[in-house]
């Protein structure tokens, strides 16, 4: 049985995942030299990979799969009693840009309130990583939100 407030944390983790740009599977064959050094850095040295204690009452989990891309991402956030995100972890199966975006997102959300973290847009992440516009077509929130909500659960 989920702890009280788990639904809110799950929705917050899910919404944060929607901010991460995703790439189509066909982009996997692109040579690494085509990626900006920030993408390569986060891909080769991802930050905050792993999982948080899924039984903890202050951990929310979001899971999303993008059928068009083949990417699957899980994001977990741990929130303190004041509503501040004190830890974030991710696991991503996908291309270099998806992994780099997830890694950067976990860095950015730490120390923010859930409300502040929800203001981070996929375009902010893409701009920081210098992703070209062609890499953003799978990050449209409208198409992702329905499949995301259907596949999200508290672990």
Automatic annotation (TrEMBL):
Keyword Protein biosynthesis: no
Gene Ontology BP terms: [4Fe-4S] cluster assembly
Pfam families named in the record: NifU_N
Gene Ontology CC terms, in alphabetical order: mitochondrial [2Fe-2S] assembly complex
Entry keywords, A to Z: Iron, Metal-binding, Transit peptide
The keyword Metal-binding is annotated on this UniProt entry: yes
Limits of the NIF system FeS cluster assembly NifU N-terminal domain: 35-140
Molecular-function GO terms, alphabetical: iron ion binding; iron-sulfur cluster binding
Function field: Mitochondrial scaffold protein, of the core iron-sulfur cluster (ISC) assembly complex, that provides the structural architecture on which the [2Fe-2S] clusters are assembled. The core iron-sulfur cluster (ISC) assembly complex is involved in the de novo synthesis of a [2Fe-2S] cluster, the first step of the mitochondrial iron-sulfur protein biogenesis. This process is initiated by the cysteine desulfurase complex (NFS1:LYRM4:NDUFAB1) that produces persulfide which is delivered on the scaffold protein ISCU in a FXN-dependent manner.
Protein family according to the UniProt entry: Belongs to the NifU family.
Name of this protein: Iron-sulfur cluster assembly enzyme ISCU
Species this chain originates from: Aotus nancymaae (Ma's night monkey)
Phylogenetic placement of the source organism: Eukaryota, Metazoa, Chordata, Craniata, Vertebrata
Gene behind this protein: ISCU
